[in-house]
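SAMPLE LOG
Freezer: B-3
Tube label: C17
Construct: single chain, 369 aa
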Amino acid sequence: MKVRVIGDPMSSKYGASGPLILLAKEFHKRGIDVEMVSSTIKPEIKNELEQYASIIDLGFENVLLKDASTSYVEIWLREAVMHQVSKRAEQLINSESSATDATINMSNTIAIKSTVWFAQGPVFEAMENIYPFFPLKYKLPYIVVRRLVKHLDIKLMRSLRELSEIACANSNTIRRVYEGLGIPIDCVIYSPIDTEFFQPKTGSPRGDYVLTYFGKETDYLAVKKVADKGVKIKAFGSKAISIVPKYVLNHPNIEVLGYVTDGELVDLYSNALFTLFPFTEEPFGYVPVESMACGTPVLTYKKQGPSETVVHGITGWLVNNDEEMADLAVEIWKEGYPSWMRSKSREKALQFDVKTIADQWIETLKKTN
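STRUCTURE (predicted):
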């Protein structure tokens, strides 16, 4: 069996690229030939992918928007306005590729015929979340054309859906978003994690800090409210350091770690009392699932993707707002929680292991044959 997997720019092993890489590895282990197609792939990622997949790199270099925060936007513009990306993909696939049994399209910017389209969220919604952090020279033009962006994106999403036999969303939250736009979704397959890597590293966690993540989707005011009440917090994540408010960066109860290696992150998850995950927008949420895989419960909001992965009172706690979050965080900090919550957290995370998710993908592909 040969499966073609199509993805957006692969500049990191994380984010939207994560599911592609994990699934490609797992498919390869099972004797499935994998062909990876992407608009652009960084050399270090390409070197890794070549161990278990053949690669078609469309070679799109950013010309207009060279900032890291806006590079993805240019790829989207090239497709939404001129269909450049899908045209080049079709040309290279036809000239360089052999026949495949199925195509999984995990891209929002390459609209070509596919077996399954994996819908991970509208681009216009992501742009709405990140445009406040654009450089001013990009922010002002975006504000002028934001309605046009939404129109073009909905048109592109409908094209992606029409070109695919099946459409799967990465959460029920995202499924509802697409269906609210009149784009039918057939199933939900959650994004995978590697639970062999993300696993408890100690049987006696220190529990002398709470772990949180600093990113563009973080609700920083909620983090401050928790720290104001005396809870000691360690924060990882380097991409959004430039936009983290000073009242958080300089807070005496918050230790900002910035970038940490994968191994360091597993140790941080494993030894934390719990993981704090306040967010503004999160369709799935890797941090809660990774934390639970390391045996650490999660305190987060009762909405969107995290409310589908965290089980209240079993693998963590779900609250309605930042005031509830701060009050409950202090209670847990002072009084702790039953030790069995750590094993239940690990048990829940196994539902998202790449082996389980790969089984779901294979079953879905079989339905189309």
